[in-house]
From TrEMBL, chain B:
One GO-annotated biological process of the protein: peptide transport
Keywords: ATP-binding, Nucleotide-binding, Transport
PROSITE patterns for the chain: ABC_TRANSPORTER_1, ABC_TRANSPORTER_2
Originating organism: Nakamurella endophytica
Record-annotated ABC transporter domain positions: 14-259
Protein name from the UniProt record: Dipeptide/oligopeptide/nickel ABC transporter ATP-binding protein
Source taxon at top rank: Bacteria
Gene3D superfamilies for this protein: P-loop containing nucleotide triphosphate hydrolases
UniProt GO molecular function: ATP binding; ATP hydrolysis activity
TrEMBL record, chain C:
Signal peptide: none
Matches recorded under InterPro entries: MetI-like, MetI-like_sf
GO biological process, one term: transmembrane transport
Source lineage: Bacteria, Bacillati, Actinomycetota, Actinomycetes, Nakamurellales
tRNA processing keyword on record: no
Species: Nakamurella endophytica
Domain ABC transmembrane type-1 residues, every copy: 102-313
Protein name: Peptide ABC transporter permease
Automatic annotation (TrEMBL), chain D:
Name of the protein in question: Peptide ABC transporter permease
GO cellular component: plasma membrane
Transmembrane segment boundaries: 55-76, 118-142, 149-173, 179-197, 240-265, 285-309
Cellular localization per UniProt: Cell membrane
Region of interest called Disordered, as start-end residue ranges on this chain: 1-48, 324-349
Alphabetical list of InterPro entries matching this protein: BP-dependent_transpt_permease, MetI-like, MetI-like_sf, OppC_N
One Pfam family, short name: OppC_N
Residue span(s) of domain ABC transmembrane type-1: 114-306
Record membrane topology: Multi-pass membrane protein
Similarity comment: family membership: Belongs to the binding-protein-dependent transport system permease family.
Organism: Nakamurella endophytica
Key words, A-Z: Cell membrane, Membrane, Transmembrane, Transmembrane helix, Transport
GO MF annotations, alphabetized: dipeptide transmembrane transporter activity
UniProtKB/TrEMBL annotation, chain E:
Low complexity biased stretches: 357-370
Protein name per its UniProtKB record: Dipeptide/oligopeptide/nickel ABC transporter ATP-binding protein
Pfam families, sorted: ABC_tran (PF00005), oligo_HPY (PF08352)
Bias-annotated ranges (Basic and acidic residues): 376-385
GO molecular function: ATP binding; ATP hydrolysis activity
Lineage: Bacteria, Bacillati, Actinomycetota, Actinomycetes, Nakamurellales
Keyword Manganese attributed: no
A biological process term (GO) from this entry: peptide transport
Length: 549, 335, 328, 349, 385
């Protein structure tokens, strides 16, 4: 009966959409967007399922909206969304959300705080749904526009995850016996779009007539085509049949920009840090901080960035791992000095100082004997990482460090870094509203594990009480000043001890064809990252306007 | 069962007792047993050639293959010098009993030289030591079959059919066997080559005292060359005796048919065999197997006829040869 | 009959062995599905380290029953006809995922394989028949085409006929705007999309059929019964069809049955290159995500397809070649 | 293209391809086709035989590639991994085949990659052929339950899907060097050859010369090695060539999917890089086309060689030298009349 | 006590017919150019209506090639390089048709309906995957278009019954029949259209003598009834002497002797023929050691100059090495003997050796030959001389 309910509701939505514009699409009011070549998907829009089609192709928030939207392009900037505002109790254990009024579900039912409370209670009740790891103790609706979440520990830092959760309608989801196996084929949300059709080649959405933001959306249809491989998606992009994409496009200037100089644009700022993760376990070559410093000093990141991505993934600019310029505000006088400039001589002098002797073969010898050598691992089918590694290995050779580039299957790579069976690996960081999230991901000893046991995220296995303390300090306060000090402390640890070695910035891939729609974020107007990833894609799509003429 | 007792003075080297081979055929669900050879008693005597003649499919090749132990008998015994062959080490047995295969084109491996073919059994049976010894022995063998020693280096395809046949015989002689089984060794060849082979085998018998089993369709050649002839019909021996006796005074109706059907330029009239129509495939499996085609068939032929001595050296398995008074009353007559 | 029973018995043992391998093989791969999924999600931004646990729970991977127990449970499931839930497409069931992908593959690869087989066999028969004629120039050409890596040809074909000339769509199985149905619109659209991939498959597989048939033809043409047929003054067509090609095609039929397995598993590269929705790509996804249930499901299909095809080939052989009915 | 057979076709030929057939060779047609062209270089008195044009063409093509593999790395103008300043440059005098997206020299990659490609191909061919020979020939010769089990094994390997097997195995092999890749490919590629060889052995094992070898006291292993193997060597050769082709194509496919270590240059790896840089789309055909073409050419060379081997197994497969009407007649079952002798005197009617 | 009842009346054979097939200067080879195997060289032959023409000779001497060349059924690489094969159908008196210049359609029309071929091994001559009936019906379908289905089926039944096979076996596949039965099916097939010429290439080699004789008997009976001509190829000279009217002996691709069979048997003129005759043992008389022909067969690619047989010939003369003897009436034989030999011993320049100069047995009445002569005792004489 739960599913029939769902169907009924969408039927209503469908009717509504038919009134506004034909679902056959193709017209100028249809935006075609692609996040990634995913291969055929199943009609699964359950927002708590990390593999749901909406999540994979960036349309999830078009239906299930978050409480707050965060601008990862400009740290600290956030936009109230379903929640007009929010307050934290000082101990960080109580979060009060003040919700928008006048919001309705796409089936016409009113949205209220109890839906929010229901959603968070649902995550508590069904751990399988809690894929963002939120640890709320209880969630209640104080009044129709106020919801209160309580936690058993200070949860300031979890707000990023909490506020990003898509809110689902209680009146539908409460009738679903096992929401963890619910495919939610006809999603009903508060968002600006309704699903109209779905097949192996993709899906289409049309504008939600009941949408709560007045005058929005301006684009009446969304089309999401499915591609199996990046080249076929890129081809379509080049042909102008895709308006907005989040692909990594090699030679983007020839393949994309040059095809329509007037309309084909891209803005792909960094949002996270790609690093070389050293295995810090005793006995591994990179356990010696001097070696890590030498490696970092010897790398010419600009060359790497050029070779692997034609500069599209910008070179990391600071040894602190801060994503610049997005996190520029966190740079202090103490950490500004850690800019990354290639300096082979410095690398050599570090090694000389640490007791390594240059051998006859042009490589340093370890005190224990043998070349100073390590293998650098990444999946073979990540072409950009492979290039990174190859160029890095050439550069490190000049510094007397022998690097074997090891391309392996994704499976082996994942298993190796998780279990600590590697020397060094190239790895991408995570995004967040502040540097804390990456630092926490990289350095929290709680996420580490002894060799041979799977670590959760601290793959270099950095176990440093001082760092942990700083992380806790950040997490247990809402005071930006205290937080900034904590970040600065960690940044210094990063820059000097190099528990991970920053390499490049992970770019938020975004290509836009402005022939039909304009208003995408740009370097000049970085109101959001440009990529069509949910939930920020929703914010962006609502800013778009039909192109003049 | 005294059908093939040895000639005076000589003890048979190889002997079979009630040897039989039954094949089971599977097809279209039902099973059928082919009695390829039944109840065979045979004795091969040194210095004699025993010819086996008979219709196609009467089991001649099967006999030869059983004797060289390529085919396992269904029942019966083979003895070599009185020892049970089945218990003997295969290699030791084959040292004494060798076979020449029917088809000289198929029985030599085309990738090996004649010398290799001859050297292998020499080494396998310990008749020569590696090195110069083998080469010398190979030369001897070639000379015995009247081939030039240079043939040792030739490949089979460089030889004519007759030469191949000689090489095959030389190979069989390599182990210095006492028994040679020759399965239709001449059927593929033209008449003049045939003759060369037969003469060669005859010489081997005379000089080496070989016991030879000569399987053939060609009755005239059996008469020309064999000492004894055994006639088989549908897996059974129907007549045996000296070669001349069997061909000149055939005692069994089948032998008579066979001989009258053999091509003979000196024949006065063409023989009519149209009555003897049906093939061996449908021969009865009990009693006299020839009775359906026999112009003299009687009721008693439903029972297995005894081997009757026509002369001391000549027997035939036919009720006609049994005095009427001594024939058992047939079932129908009794009824 | 006995022959068939025996065949059936061996088929069953083979199936058992293959299914067991299919069960253990994926689990021997390094890594586990949740790690892979987290790694994948992480590339798109927000993922909390705490999410691991939830995902373990979500995909039922937190339960630590021993492999052997799982193995027997798997058999239990199989006998109930339950293939489990895919991880990649969670919560869809494996049978749903397969059911969605398989028809496309069956149609595209199946039809092109059949076309390739028919075309190759007819061409091969003709070339074998007309030895020494101009027709033989097809041989080196088709051999060249068949030595070309699949995906390479596919990509070139796309960039030529799709991107450059715009004659055919660049990718996909049909236009997204049309929903799959049996309407003529949809079918013609789907056919239009299938042209390039089908041509690629046919071009790169036709050579082996041509060659096999041609060689058999040449061999059979040398059989006495063909000579007799010619001596009998039968018409050319009759000799070709009832005597030469009729007998020459037998080995090709066995080969054709085996190529059915290719229909399911060999289509991967084509499906990747042409973004065609099919089972090959699903398998690729399953492997990449270590989606054990989906992998097992697809393997099962492949295994059954191959075994069935083999069995059918055997039976077809028995029907077409009376000689095999006797012994074997 | 002088295709004249210098020896008659015999039944033995048939047996090789069409399974066992009753009846011996035609008298007078004495030569066994498997021998008249001795494949052993050491064998005396090699018979002259006009090699088929296809065979020669295949040999030439492969010879060129083998040469390339042998001296490629020595003559390569650049280090194939070296990043140059000219990015995605079309063919020029500096870079005959242009450069890649990172400014590497395509020609150098092609030259250097030949070695890895060929080594993997040949190695995989050898390993797979060895396995299939051991399993197929032994099974066929021994018969009985051992045969049943061995054919079961090869059937299972035919059924087990290759892709995951490859991934599992590459996951286990350290760093996926050429030997490892070859081993993995051969493990998935031996089963077919084994079936063919088994069928062939089955048809041979009851031949007279095998029985004769038994009678001559040869032990089983000697019969397999010295009596049977020489007779399947043409099939072995053909299965070897086929496996090499299969291995090269598989290798290229694996590389394309990024399943091998793409830091070691091979043609597949070139294609991988070209593809991940979307070279075709960027108009850099000089990057994408050469490696594929090289693979196709090598495949063609192998296939042509295979034709040669096939024709050698079965002389009938040679295309005949007749042309025009004569060829048509001959195909229709009418012996062509090609008058080379002067016309005899007119017959009175 | 012997079973030999019921002989065939041999006296009622057709009268010496006019030629139905004339072969003139026929040459055929395998391949072209210097490497070609010249398997048939310059053969002249005449086949008369109702005649049984036997061809014998060494293995590989070109007998089969000759037969197939006549019907243009020679396989690639076989080609016909010279000559004429004139077929003179009974219903077209006077007119002849050169098979070598005939087109496919013409050939197809006369194949089987006028000239049928019974192939060496019935084992392979029947398509293993079609029933025997289909293969018989095929012939009728191709050549008797006007016949109704029923009529065709009836004809097929009639024919298989005639060769002694129960029509119930018609639905069988070839492998389900015994060798002898298959051979008979082939014969039935060969005769189903009542052709004028039947070419038989070693049709009975693999069979035992009884079966062989049964088949031959049927052929002879049918010939009596239908009056067709037979070309019969075999190694079995003794058989040929028994059934053939005329025998041609081939050596190294050429005819070396052709004579009525009684003449050939009793008074061979060519040393090779004599060698053959001396090589098969007799079923009668004392056992005597026979010696075959010394030496080994020639390689058709390197045929010796002059007379190809000279290297094995006991009577070799210098001129044998240089000049090839033509096929001609031996000097000393009357033209009525209708025989030819290719040997310099018979060119009249020197008396032939006694063994090759024996007088012919008797004046020969038409084609009645071996069967009617009383020759039982001549064999011994022949050997002694
Ligand atoms: N392996 C086998 N399986 C089944 N039946 C067989 C087998 N070998 C022989 N036979 C049958 O046994 C019978 C005797 O065969 P065998 O080869 O001994 O006959 P033969 O006298 O040598 O005949 P031929 O003169 O034709 O060579 C035949 O009916 C044959 O079909
Ligand atoms: N396809 C062929 N290619 C080359 N040479 C051939 C071919 N077929 C036959 N020959 C050769 O032609 C010659 C004549 O062959 P043919 O078959 O006519 O001989 P035959 O007299 O019928 O011999 P047999 O009595 O053995 O049947 C032989 O030397 C043979 O080796
Ligand atoms: Mg036999
Ligand atoms: Mg012949």
């Amino acid at each position: 009966s739960s599913s029939s309910k769902g169907e009924n509701t969408t039927a209503t939505g469908g009717n509504g959409s038919a009134a506004t514009s034909g679902s056959s699409g193709g017209g100028s009011s249809t935006l075609t967007m692609v996040v990634q070549p995913s291969g055929p998907l199943t009609r699964n829009f359950n927002p708590f399922n990390p593999n749901n089609a909406g999540m994979i192709q960036g349309t999830q928030a078009f239906v299930y909206e978050p409480l707050v939207q965060f601008n990862l392009a400009k740290t600290g900037q956030e936009y109230p969304w379903l929640a007009k505002s929010y307050d934290w109790s000082s101990d960080g254990k109580t979060l009060t959300l003040h919700l928008q009024s006048g919001v309705t579900w796409s089936d016409g039912k009113p949205f209220s705080a109890s839906d929010v409370a229901f959603t968070f209670n649902l995550l508590r009740k069904f751990p399988a749904l809690n894929t963002s790891g939120i640890k709320a103790v209880s969630a209640t609706a104080k009044d129709p526009t106020t919801a209160v979440l309580t936690f058993d520990h200070a949860s300031f830092v979890d707000f990023y995850y909490i506020a990003s959760v898509g809110i689902v309608p209680e009146h539908i989801w409460s009738g679903i016996a096992d929401p963890s196996t619910f495919a939610d084929p006809n999603p009903v949300g508060t968002g600006p779009y309704l699903l109209t059709s779905f097949n192996q080649q993709g899906w289409e959405m049309t504008k939600n007539p009941h949408y709560w933001q007045a005058g929005k959306p301006t684009i009446s249809n969304i089309r999401v085509p499915i591609f199996n491989s990046a080249p076929s998606a890129t081809l379509a992009l080049g042909q102008g049949t895709v308006d907005w994409a989040g692909l990594f496009v090699n030679n983007i200037d020839t393949v994309f920009a040059a095809k329509d100089k007037q309309h084909n644009t891209y803005w792909q700022p960094g949002y996270s840090t790609v690093t070389i993760i050293p295995n810090l376990e005793q006995g591994k070559p990179l356990a010696d901080v001097a070696v890590r410093q030498a490696v970092s000093a010897a790398l010419d990141r600009t060359q790497i960035s050029k070779a692997a991505t034609q500069g599209q993934a910008p070179p990391a600019a600071s040894a602190t791992g801060l994503v610049l310029p997005a996190q520029e505000t966190y740079l202090t006088d103490a950490t500004k000095q850690y800019a990354l400039t290639p300096d082979v001589a410095k690398a050599k002098s570090i090694l000389d100082g640490a007791g390594y002797k240059m051998g006859g073969d042009g490589y340093y010898q370890t005190p224990a004997g043998g070349d100073l050598a390590f293998s650098l691992e990444q999946p073979s089918n990540y072409a950009d990482f492979m290039t990174d590694a190859q160029v890095a290995s050439q550069q490190l050779k000049a510094a007397g460090i022998k690097v074997t580039v090891s391309g392996v299957s994704v499976q082996k790579y994942t298993s190796d870094i998780t279990n600590g069976t590697f020397d060094a690996a190239i790895h991408v960081g995570v995004s967040g509203t502040s540097p804390y999230y990456q630092y926490n991901y990289w350095l929290n000893s709680a996420f580490s594990a002894p060799a041979g046991k799977p670590a959760i995220s601290n793959f270099s296995r950095w176990e440093d009480p001082a760092t942990d303390k700083l992380l806790t300090q950040y997490a247990s306060t809402n005071d930006p000043k205290v937080q900034a000090t904590a970040i600065d402390g960690i940044a210094q640890v990063m820059a000097t001890k190099l528990p991970v070695i920053p390499l490049l910035y992970g770019a938020a891939w975004a290509q836009m064809n402005t022939k039909k729609f304009t208003g995408y974020p740009t370097a000049d107007n970085p109101y959001m990252l440009g990529w069509p990833v949910s939930p920020s894609s929703e914010y962006t799509v609502l800013q778009l306007k039909p192109a003049a003429g | 069962m005294t059908s093939t007792t040895s000639g005076p003075g000589a003890e048979p080297v190889l002997r079979t007792t009630s040897l039989a081979k039954h094949y089971t055929l599977r097809g279209r669900g039902r099973r059928r047993t082919v009695r390829a050879v039944d109840d065979l008693d045979l004795a091969l005597v040194p210095g004699t050639v025993t010819a086996v003649v008979g219709e196609s499919g009467s089991g001649k090749s099967t006999v030869a293959k059983m004797l060289v132990r390529l085919v396992r008998p269904s029942s019966g015994r083979i003895t070599l010098d009185g020892r049970d062959a089945g218990r003997m080490n295969l290699r030791a047995y084959r040292k004494d009993v060798q076979m020449v295969f029917q088809d000289p084109f198929a029985s030599l491996n085309s990738v090996h030289t004649i010398g290799y073919h001859l050297a292998r059994p020499l080494l396998n049976f310990g008749r020569a030591r590696r090195g110069a010894d083998v080469a010398g022995k190979v030369r001897d063998l070639l000379q015995r079959v009247k081939l030039d020693p240079q043939f040792a280096d030739k490949l089979p395809h460089e030889l004519s059919g007759g030469q191949r046949q000689r090489a095959a015989i030389a190979r069989a002689l390599a182990s210095e066997p006492r028994v040679l089984l020759a399965d239709e060794p001449i059927s593929m060849l033209d008449v003049s080559i045939r003759l060369g082979i037969l003469n060669l085998l005859g010489e081997l018998r005379d000089t080496d005292g070989l016991a030879i089993l000569y399987v053939t369709h060609d009755i005239a050649s059996a008469r020309y060359f064999a000492d004894r002839t055994v006639v088989m019909y549908a897996g059974k021996v129907v007549e045996s005796g000296t070669a001349l006796e069997v061909t000149d005074q055939p005692a069994h109706p089948y032998t008579q048919l066979l001989i009258s059907a053999a091509p003979d330029p000196q024949r006065i009239e063409i023989v009519d065999v149209s009555r003897a129509s049906s093939g061996a495939a449908s021969a009865p499996t009990d009693g006299c197997r020839f009775r359906d085609r026999c112009p003299f068939a009687m009721d008693v032929c439903r029972q297995q006829p005894p081997d009757v001595a026509v002369t001391p050296s000549h027997t035939a398995a036919c009720w006609l040869r049994v005095d009427e008074s001594q024939r058992p009353a047939s079932g129908r007559e009794a009824a | 009959m006995k022959f068939l029973l025996r065949r059936l018995g061996f088929t069953l043992i083979t199936a058992w062995a293959a299914i067991s391998i299919n069960f253990f093989l994926p689990r021997l791969m390094p890594g586990d599905p949740v790690q892979l999924m987290v790694a994948r999600l992480q590339q798109q931004g927000a993922v909390s380290p705490n999410a691991m646990q939830a995902m373990q729970v979500a995909f039922g991977l937190d339960d630590h029953t021993s492999l052997i127990v799982q193995y027997f449970q798997y058999w239990g499931q199989l006998f109930r006809g339950d293939l489990g839930r895919s991880i990649t497409f969670y919560p869809s069931s494996v049978s749903e995922v397969i059911g969605q992908a398989l028809p496309w593959t069956l149609v595209l690869v199946g039809v092109s394989t059949v076309i390739s087989f028919l075309l190759g066999t007819v061409l091969g028969a003709f070339i074998g028949w007309r030895r020494g004629s101009w027709a033989e120039t097809i041989l080196p050409l088709s051999t060249f085409l068949s030595s070309v890596p699949y995906f390479w040809m596919g990509l070139i074909v796309i960039s030529l006929f799709g991107a450059k000339l715009g004659w055919f769509p660049l990718s996909g199985g049909f236009d997204q705007g049309i929903d799959p149905s049996w309407s003529s619109d949809f079918v013609s659209n789907a056919l239009y999309h299938a042209v390039l991939p089908a041509i690629t498959i046919v071009l790169s597989s036709v050579a082996s059929w041509i060659l096999g048939m041609r060689n058999m033809m040449v061999t059979v043409m040398d059989e006495d019964y063909v000579l007799v047929a010619q001596a009998k003054g039968l018409s050319r067509l009759r000799v070709l069809s009832a005597y030469a090609a009729r007998n020459a095609v037998l080995p090709s039929i066995a080969g054709f049955a085996l190529s059915i397995s290719f229909v399911v598993s060999g289509s991967l590269l084509v499906e990747i290159v042409f973004s065609y929705p099919g089972i090959g790509y699903s398998l690729y996804q399953a492997v990449n995500n270590e989606d054990f249930p989906l992998m097992q499901g697809i393997f099962l299909i492949i295994t059954f397809a191959v075994l069935l095809a083999n069995l059918v080939a055997d039976v077809a052989y028995v029907l077409l070649d009376p000689r095999t009915r006797q012994d074997a | 293209m002088a295709e004249t057979s210098d020896r008659p076709a015999t039944d033995a030929v048939d047996d090789v391809l069409a399974g066992d057939r009753v009846g011996g060779p035609v008298p007078g047609a004495a030569a066994d086709p498997l021998v008249s062209e001795p494949a052993d270089p050491g064998r005396p008195r090699r018979r002259r035989r006009t090699m088929s044009g296809k065979f020669v063409a295949g040999l030439v093509i492969l010879g060129l590639f083998v040469l390339m593999a042998a001296i490629g790395p020595l003559v390569a103008p650049y280090d194939p991994s070296n990043l140059g300043p000219d990015v995605l440059a079309p063919p020029s005098w500096q870079h005959w085949l242009g450069t890649t997206g990172t400014g590497q020299d395509v020609l150098s990659q092609l030259l250097v990659g030949a070695r890895q490609t060929l080594i993997i191909g040949v190695l995989a061919g050898l390993i797979a052929t060895a396995i299939s020979t051991i399993i197929g020939v032994t099974g066929g010769f021994v018969g009985g339950i051992a045969d049943d089990l061995l054919s079961l094994l090869s059937n299972v390997f035919l059924v087990v899907p290759a892709l995951p097997l490859l991934i599992v195995l590459t996951g286990y092999l350290p760093n996926g060097g050429p030997v490892a890749v070859a081993a993995v490919i051969s493990l998935t590629g031996w089963a077919w050859g084994s079936r063919v060889l088994r069928a062939q052995t089955l048809s041979i094992r009851r031949r007279d010369y095998i029985e004769a070898a038994r009678v001559a006291g040869e032990p089983g292993w000697r019969i397999i090695v010295f009596e049977i193997l020489p007779h399947v060597r043409a099939i072995l050769a053909s299965s070897f060539l086929f496996t090499v082709l299969f291995a090269i194509l598989t290798q290229v496919g694996l590389a394309f999917l990024g399943l091998v270590d793409v830091s070691q240059w091979s043609w597949g790896v070139m294609l991988y890089w070209a593809q991940s840089a979307d070279a075709l789309n960027a108009g850099a055909w000089w990057w994408f086309v050469p490696p594929g073409l090289a693979v196709a050419l090598i495949g063609t060379g192998l296939a042509l060689l295979n034709f040669g081997v096939d024709e050698f197994i079965n002389p009938r497969l040679r295309s005949n030298s007749l042309r025009g009407r004569a060829a048509r007649d001959s195909a229709g079952g009418f012996t062509p009349v090609v008058r080379t002798d002067p016309q005899p005197s007119e017959v009175q009617r | 006590m012997t079973i030999s009842a019921g002989s065939i009346p041999v006296t009622t054979r057709p009268r010496a017919g006019d030629p139905v097939l004339e072969v003139r200067g026929l040459s055929a080879s395998y391949g072209l150019g210097p490497d070609a195997v010249r398997a048939v060289v310059d053969v002249d032959l005449t086949l008369r209506r109702g005649e049984i023409l036997g061809i014998a000779g060494e293995s590989g001497s070109g007998k089969s090639t000759l037969a197939y060349a006549i019907t243009r059924l020679l396989r690639p690489p076989g080609v016909i390089t010279a000559g004429e094969v004139v077929f003179r159908p009974a219903d077209r008196p006077g007119g002849g048709m050169d098979l070598l210049s005939a087109g496919p359609a013409e050939l197809r029309a006369i194949r089987w309906s006028e000239i049928a071929v019974v192939f060496q091994s019935a084992m392979h001559a029947l398509n293993p995957v079609l029933t025997v009936e289909r293969q018989l019906l095929d012939v009728l379908a191709a050549h008797r278009r006007s016949m109704s289905r029923q009529a065709r089926q009836a004809r097929v039944r009639e024919m298989v019954e005639m060769v002694g096979i129960s029509p119930s076996r018609l639905k069988s596949y070839p492998h389900e029949l015994s060798g002898g039965m298959r051979q008979r099916v082939m014969i039935a097939m060969g005769l189903i259209l009542e052709p004028q010429i039947v070419l038989m290439d070693e049709p009975t080699t693999a069979l035992d003598v009884v079966t062989q004789r049964q088949i031959l008997q049927q052929i002879l009976e049918l010939r009596e009834r239908l009056g067709f001509s037979v070309v019969f190829i075999t190694h079995d000279l003794s058989l040929l002497i028994e059934i053939a009217d005329t025998i041609a002996i081939m050596y190294a691709g050429r005819l070396v002797e052709r004579a009525p069979s009684a003449f050939l048997f009793h008074a061979p003129r060519h040393p090779y023929t004599r060698g053959l005759l001396a090589s098969f043992p007799s079923l009668h008389g004392d056992r005597e050691k026979l010696v075959g022909i010394p030496g080994s067969p020639v390689d058709l690619r390197h045929v010796p100059s002059g007379c190809a047989f000279r290297t094995r010939c006991p009577h070799e003369m210098p001129r044998c090495a240089t000049d090839r003897p033509p096929l001609a009436l031996p000097v000393g034989d009357p033209p009525s003997a209708d025989r030819e030999v290719a040997c310099w011993l018979h060119d009249g320049r020197q008396p032939p050796p006694p063994s090759l100069a024996r007088p012919a047995p008797a004046a020969r009445p038409e084609y009645a030959t071996a069967g009617t002569s009383t020759i039982r005792d001549t064999r011994a004489e022949q050997e002694r001389s």
